[in-house]
């Protein structure tokens, strides 16, 4: 069994949760209960994926959607990490084409997935947050993410996988997030000898950054966050899209898709970081 296959199999099991649509401002638009089954067969040489989605009612009612598929390979354009985290999405940003990125983050008996979509004009279309719990476990949902939870110093380990199959890379990261005035944040990211500083404006459940493009971080339920450019343009500079998940008061995972200045997806980076100083929250929930 390949390492990629072995890592993906950390997602096996029955996951009960929901597909919930959010606006860019972090407001819930709709939600549908779901059950996802991932099971291996043929001596772990293949896996079966089944998704059931439910309307009003509960899991004992007939599903409104029941879809399944079998796979014997994982394509080149699904990148998988040691924890079972995975990413996939649009390979090439192109004019008059939709764009989407999907992320999967895993820890113990919890999964969190996020889908970010843009329309044919490069305008933001919607966020879908998928919160999942392993069936039969006592896993619980995290509180909604807040600005206060992000403040402090976060030290992490980054692991980058490349779409052209070159050897993966690993390196250390340091992220410091501090308040700068009443409604602003200042964050400094250090990695591989580089230091990047940016200033964000807090607006409700959003943090808006102005760099070479307007970038919006949306704070979501279950400790989740979405980090995207406000608009995509095939002529723009290199860019990234990101999902984050605060899995405990002092531990956060982030998954980042990197695109070059030609709009090609080049790599994804999974970061596991721990808060080493700064405000914290009680650890008893």
Automatic annotation (TrEMBL):
Coiled-coil region list: none
Pfam families named among the record's database cross-references: BFA1_C (PF21053), DUF3598_N (PF12204)
Disordered, as annotated region: 265-285
GO biological-process terms attached to the record: division septum site selection
Residue ranges of every copy of the Biogenesis factor required for ATP synthase 1-like C-terminal domain listed in the record: 141-275
GO cellular component: plasma membrane
InterPro entries (alphabetical): BFA1-like_C, BFA1-like_DUF3598, Calycin
Record-annotated DUF3598 domain positions: 1-136
Top-level taxon in the UniProt lineage: Bacteria
Signal peptide: none
PANTHER family membership: CELL DIVISION TOPOLOGICAL SPECIFICITY FACTOR HOMOLOG, CHLOROPLASTIC (PTHR33404), SLL0497 PROTEIN (PTHR33404:SF1)
Name this polypeptide is given: Uncharacterized protein
Species the sequence originates in: Acaryochloris thomasi RCC1774
Upper taxonomic lineage: Bacteria, Bacillati, Cyanobacteriota, Cyanophyceae, Acaryochloridales
């Amino acid at each position: 069994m390949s390492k990629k296959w072995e890592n993906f199999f950390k997602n096996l099991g029955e996951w009960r949760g929901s597909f919930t649509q959010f606006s860019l401002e972090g407001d819930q638009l709709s939600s549908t209960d779901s059950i996802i089954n991932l099971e291996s067969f043929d001596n772990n040489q293949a896996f079966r994926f089944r998704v059931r989605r439910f309307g009003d009612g509960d899991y004992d009612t007939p599903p409104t959607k029941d879809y399944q598929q079998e796979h014997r390979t994982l394509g080149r354009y699904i990148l998988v990490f040691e924890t079972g985290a995975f990413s996939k999405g649009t390979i090439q940003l192109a004019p008059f084409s939709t764009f989407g990125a999907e992320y999967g983050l895993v820890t113990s008996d919890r999964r969190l997935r996020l889908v970010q979509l843009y329309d044919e004009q490069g305008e933001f279309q919607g966020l879908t947050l998928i919160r999942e719990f392993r069936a039969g476990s006592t896993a619980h949902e995290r509180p909604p993410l807040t600005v206060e939870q992000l403040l402090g110093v976060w030290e992490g380990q980054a692991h980058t996988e490349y779409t052209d199959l070159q050897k993966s890379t690993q390196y250390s990261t340091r992220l410091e997030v501090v308040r700068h005035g009443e409604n602003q944040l200042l964050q400094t990211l250090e990695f591989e000898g580089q230091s990047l500083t940016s200033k964000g404006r807090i607006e409700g459940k959003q943090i808006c950054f102005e760099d070479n493009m307007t970038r919006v971080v949306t704070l979501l339920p279950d400790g989740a966050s979405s980090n995207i450019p406000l608009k995509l343009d095939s002529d723009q500079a290199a860019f990234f899209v990101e999902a984050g998940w605060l899995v405990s008061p002092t531990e956060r995972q982030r998954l980042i898709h990197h695109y070059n200045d030609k709009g090609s997806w080049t790599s994804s980076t999974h970061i596991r970081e721990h808060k080493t100083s700064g405000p914290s929250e009680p650890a008893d929930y």
